[in-house]
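User: Sequence recovery, please. Input:
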């Protein structure tokens, strides 16, 4: 059985609760930058970006 990452569990729970989500990453002069966007049809929307740049691949934290 494959290992499930914590972000996969979070994505499944968001989808199950009626939220759509997306993410992107970009390389900047300071390192990797992650942005996560979650939204619902009723107008609720949340964006978060990692506050720290990294020269290594880093999984983003989802904040409330």
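Assistant: Recovered sequence (64 residues):
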């Amino acid at each position: 059985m494959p290992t499930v990452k914590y972000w996969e569990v979070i994505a499944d729970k968001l989808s199950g609760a009626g939220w759509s989500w997306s993410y992107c990453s970009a390389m900047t002069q300071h390192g990797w930058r992650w942005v996560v966007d979650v939204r619902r049809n009723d107008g609720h929307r949340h964006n978060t970006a990692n506050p720290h740049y990294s020269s290594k691949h880093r999984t983003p934290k989802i904040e409330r």
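The chain has a mean pLDDT of 77.
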